[in-house]
Write a structure and sequence with these properties.
There is one protein chain. By secondary structure, the protein is α+β, with helices and mostly antiparallel strands. Among the domains are: 106 residues, no CATH class; 103 residues, no CATH class. Helix content is 42%, strand content 15%. It contains 15 helices and 14 strands. The strands form five sheets. A four-stranded antiparallel β-sheet has the order 11-12-13-14. A three-stranded mixed β-sheet has the order 1-9-10. Strands 2-4-3 form a three-stranded antiparallel β-sheet, sandwiched between helices. It starts with 6 loop residues before the first strand and ends with a helix. The model has no long low-confidence stretch (mean pLDDT 94). It comes from Streptomyces aurantiacus JA 4570. This is Winged helix DNA-binding domain-containing protein. Pfam families: AlkZ-like.
């Protein structure tokens, strides 16, 4: 007789989410490194997301704690990797992430940059010369913005009109493309930005020397998949493919290499757990959280029905599939929040969560408003409900 495969219910998936992703009571972390480790990486396309995602999971949230890891101790690293998206990952994990995903992204970035400067009449030889000059100028300055480097290396300021004739046509500099490539390759890194922690005007500095030998790409993919299984599992092959940006073949090979255990999910599909992660995760105490747009918990899977009613998708996502700020209760997305111009954090629940949870959400909103203080946060990707909530009081 063939034994029936084990099953993981939606309720246990929500319990795992709360515990593994540091949102349930008693699960909060002390350091930014622990937060990044638990989630593999914090989404960083929107600079504010890193801080807000960390604040939701730190026992004592502070901007200083995130900046310590990013800019002082360099224990977390901002890099372009999974899905050609910016993440903040634990620095010890960066070589593995580079070998498994970022290396391929960097190769595409370099090809695109070479095609861009070809419009300026540059060949690869000139590109290489300008790149060497830029690195030398950055090393001499220690830290600099793109405009400062362009004063040292004027070629970096040469411009190309992108998408001419379109409503979104814009001039872009050679430096903006070249610096992005160097960062994607791990040769330079984003340093402390100008202005507040919500700013995306990053300065640049030369990156520390990389390890002498990158991990083997196939082994790195398997190692990253194993971490993903533990942080987000059970997940489907489609989830892994979507989250990493790999091909379906690569996702299947990586899963097989982990020795992942397949389980039945409530929706009738097959999910996968890490081979040493078979014990059920008990439901934690009741919890609520206000997570920012693009938070890794919200964006960690392609299939979200176990924690998100599909009817709520039009209000909570933009047209490109980016999620806005969300309200969570016991492992489910139950609403949205926004910050108004006067600083007040407001929310709307899209389903009945009970009086206790509603009170807890209101308390969390007041705490977040007090934590933000004079800072105003507008998500990089606006969603219908966030826009409505952030509008004038009625």
């Amino acid at each position: 007789m063939i034994a029936r495969r084990a099953a993981v219910t939606d309720a246990e998936r929500r319990a795992r989410l709360g515990v593994r992703q540091l949102l349930a009571p008693g699960a909060r972390a002390e350091r930014i490194e622990d937060v990044a480790e638990a989630l593999i990486g914090l989404h960083a396309t929107d600079p504010a997301t890193v801080y807000l995602s960390a604040a939701a999971r730190l026992a004592e949230p502070s901007v200083a704690e995130v900046e310590r890891g990013l800019y002082d101790d360099l224990t977390v690293t901002r890099m372009l990797c999974m899905r050609r998206t910016m993440f903040v990952v634990p620095t010890p994990l960066a070589p593995l992430v580079h070998a498994s995903t970022a290396r391929a992204v960097a190769a595409k970035e370099r090809a695109g940059s070479l095609a861009f400067v070809a419009q300026l009449g540059w060949d690869e030889r000139r590109y290489a010369a300008v790149e060497r000059a830029a690195l030398a100028a950055l090393a001499a300055r220690g830290m600099a913005g793109a405009a400062e480097l362009a004063r040292d290396v004027p070629e970096l300021g040469e411009k190309v009109l992108v998408s001419p004739g379109k409503s979104y046509a814009a001039w872009q500099t050679a430096g903006s493309r070249m610096l992005r490539v160097l960062a994607a390759e791990g040769r330079i890194r984003r340093a402390r930005p100008r202005g507040a922690w919500t700013s995306g005007q990053f300065r640049w500095t030369v990156a520390p020397e990389p390890p002498a030998h990158d991990p083997d790409p196939l082994a790195a993919k398997a190692a990253l998949a194993r971490r993903y299984l533990y942080a987000f599992g059970p997940v489907t092959v489609d989830d892994l493919k979507w989250w990493t940006g790999w091909t379906l073949t690569d996702a299947r090979k990586a899963l097989a290499a982990t020795g992942a255990r397949d389980v039945d999910l409530d929706d009738g599909t097959t999910g996968y757990l890490a081979p040493d992660d078979e014990e059920p995760v008990p439901a934690p105490e009741s919890w609520v959280a206000l997570l920012p747009g693009l938070d890794p918990t919200s964006m960690g899977r392609r299939h979200r029905a176990f924690h998100l009613d599909p009817a709520h998708v039009p209000a909570l996502f933009d047209r490109n599939g980016n999620i806005g700020p969300t309200v969570w209760a016991d492992g489910r997305i139950v609403g949205a929040w926004a910050q108004r111009a006067d600083g007040e954090v407001v929310f709307r629940l899209l389903e009945d969560v009970g009086a206790g949870a509603r009170t807890a959400v209101a308390e969390r909103a007041a705490e977040l408003g007090a934590w933000l203080g004079p800072v105003r946060v507008t998500p990089a990707y606006r969603t219908p409900l966030e826009r409505e909530l952030a509008g004038p009081k009625r």
